[in-house]
């Protein structure tokens, strides 16, 4: 008997937010390890390694993968060192070895629509990232090429972690700070494809609480834990969703450079596991 070809409808592609939720649930972690390579901080064994950035980051990825819900390479750290190819290969490495772990390319892009299309293509085609950070200052048309990629995540700056965050983001417009307008606009008007997330810094627990109250379950990328001194308990208490998730809590230097000895990978794994456990105690 000849078999008739299967007419099964293909599985719908699982988008960034679905994959993130799977990882939160199945790996029980909200930790994101930031990949911010700084060769001057690498252990001595990398001093004469022409592929130091790739090799160091790959070791960190392999050591910390069990404890993370996402990896977040920061593009400037690679571009400044002419290491874009290392970045591309690292994202490929994560895709092959850890297909359940999404990659957020931290490039904070923002430009007029015709240029933004190329930034979207840079993130999603050149680097094959699952999500990208975007600056909303130019308005919706500048973010549209990213929003249109329903399978990919668009992680939009809302209330950043740095000391000067409030200079513009807290300016009062129509009786409320600008970052609250940004949060609401994204959650209510820009999130048609359900692929948006917001950057809200760990260093601002009150603002984390305010934004969570405005946007329901929209995921937050929360940098500022570790080297910037954010309080883990306050972050989780103020910003988790009702089911104890909703957060991508990112730490770079405190994990990457936990040791500059030969135990760097083990020390990074310990730091990531300790952060995971601390977060989970407060969920
Ligand atoms: O508001 C923001 C947005 C992005 N970042 C980025 O996150 C990491 C933080 O590094 P740490 O070593 O954990 O402090 C870095 O890549 C920043 O560019 C941020 O810090 N704050």
UniProtKB/TrEMBL annotation:
Gene designation: pyrF
InterPro entries with a match to the protein in the record: Aldolase_TIM, OMPdecase_AS, OMPdecase_type-2, OMPdeCOase_dom, RibuloseP-bd_barrel
Organism per entry: Lysobacter hankyongensis
Active site (catalytic residues): 108
Domain Orotidine 5'-phosphate decarboxylase: 30-268
Protein name in the entry: Orotidine 5'-phosphate decarboxylase
Organism placement in taxonomy: Bacteria, Pseudomonadati, Pseudomonadota, Gammaproteobacteria, Lysobacterales
Record has Lyase as a keyword: yes
Pfam families from the UniProt entry: OMPdecase (PF00215)
CDD domains for this protein: OMP_decarboxylase_like
């Amino acid at each position: 008997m000849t078999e008739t070809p299967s007419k099964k409808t293909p599985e719908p592609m699982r988008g960034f937010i679905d994959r993130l939720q799977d990882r939160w649930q199945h790996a029980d972690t909200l930790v994101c390890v930031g990949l911010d390579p700084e060769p001057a901080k690498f252990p001595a064994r990398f001093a004469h390694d022409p592929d130091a950035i790739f090799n160091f980051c790959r070791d960190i990825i392999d050591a910390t993968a069990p404890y993370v819900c996402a990896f977040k390479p920061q593009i400037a750290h690679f571009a400044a060192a002419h290491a874009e190819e290392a970045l591309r290969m690292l994202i490929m490495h994560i895709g092959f070895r850890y297909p359940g772990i999404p990659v957020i390319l931290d490039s904070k892009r923002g430009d007029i629509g015709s240029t933004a299309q190329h930034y979207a293509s840079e993130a999603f085609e050149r680097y094959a990232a699952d999500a990208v950070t975007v600056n909303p200052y130019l308005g919706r048309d500048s973010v549209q090429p990213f929003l249109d990629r329903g399978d990919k995540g668009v992680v939009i700056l809302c209330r950043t972690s740095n000391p000067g965050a409030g200079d513009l983001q807290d300016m009062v417009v129509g009786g409320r700070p600008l970052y609250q307008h940004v949060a609401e606009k994204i959650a209510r008007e820009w999130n048609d494809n359900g692929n948006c997330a917001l950057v809200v810094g760990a260093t601002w627990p009150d603002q984390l609480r305010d934004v969570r109250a405005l946007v329901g379950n929209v995921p937050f990328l929360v940098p500022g834990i570790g080297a910037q001194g954010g309080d883990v308990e306050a972050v989780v208490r103020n910003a988790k969703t009702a089911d104890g998730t909703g957060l991508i809590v990112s730490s770079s230097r405190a994990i990457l450079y936990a040791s500059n000895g030969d135990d760097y990978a083990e020390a990074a794994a310990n730091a990531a596991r300790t952060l995971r456990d601390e977060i989970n105690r407060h969920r």
